[in-house]
Amino acid sequence: xxxxxxxxxxxxxxxxxxxxxxxxxxxxxxxxxxxxxxxxxxxxxxxxxxxxxxxxxxxxxxxxxxxxxxxxxxxxxxxxxxxxxxxxxxxxxxxxxxxxxxxxxxxxxxxxxxxxxxxxxxxxxxxxxxxxxxxxxxxxxxxxxxxxxxxxxxxxxxxxxxxxxxxxxxxxxxxxxxxxxxxxxxxxxxxxxxxxxxxxxxxxxxxxxxxxxxxxxxxxxxxxxxxxxxxxxxxxxxxxxxxxxxxxxxxxxxxxxxxxxxxxxxxxxxxxxxxxxxxxxxxxxxxxxxxxxxxxxxxxxxxxxxxxxxxxxxxxxxxxxxxxxxxxxxxxx
Length: 333
Fold this sequence. Notes:
Layout: H1 2-13, H2 18-36, E1 41-44, E2 54-55, H3 56-71, E3 77-78, H4 81-90, H5 101-111, E4 115-124, E5 127-136, E6 142-151, H6 154-161, E7 163-164, E8 186-190, E9 193-197, E10 201-203, E11 207-216, E12 223-229, E13 237-241, E14 246-248, E15 254-255, E16 258-261, E17 269-270, E18 274-276, E19 281-290, E20 301-311, E21 319-331
Parallel strand pairs: 1-3, 1-4, 12-16
Antiparallel strand pairs: 2-7, 4-5, 5-6, 8-9, 9-11, 10-11, 11-19, 12-18, 12-20, 13-14, 13-20, 14-19, 15-19, 17-21, 20-21
């Protein structure tokens, strides 16, 4: 019965809500305009109001657009959001200041992007109008735009009420030490594999979004990895929230890393993995849906448990796998 409920929730996950549907449409329109403008690498900045002020909803919108770009079919690459924040802080640039052509050009040079996605959100009665512009980093010219309207629900109201500064700068405390960021990464290691975990995000209004970066620290040999699944495609692992509710995922909800079922007949031999070349990284995103259809994702502390299979040598389409049990306490933003 529990397994059937889990599968039903995983199927319902793909149906989406109004916000999710509108954002997907917005992403598709922007992707088409990026392609027609022949841009090769873009960065998505937090959405703001018309005065340039930000809130958690603006951050959520940027995260979702970034994720949709990564998961969709396209002919351009997308700068990882964590790297974008680091570059902005390192060079003392601000999201608000990037409308200045000189600042946009600096970011293009430092991050290797040739276009920025800048968005605004404007409340209109029971809706919020979202507008996104594609701005070149060399001339600050607008080469494309798209907009949509989403219904204002309790989730959106909650995020819009949580204001934050869009001025992303590196600052120091009175002791001269850099303060710890609320978005600090959690780092785990498994052999040559370095695993950086971002704070959890709430996706589609009700699910958890896990983002992690796997880096091969070896400069000489490749690393191979995959997420372990059960026979029905459900990932081995889950997220448990502060109230004890469990959230599960499936291979179809994973981006950036293979998700594989290792059967009894396979022994410990993997035939499908993701290769990470020496010194390279891959960004992995996983969505988790509640096993209890009436319980939604909430802000607070959660516990993650996930099985990652690694292979040291992959030859002839096969390699002996070892399992790393990834566990961590994560905060939901």
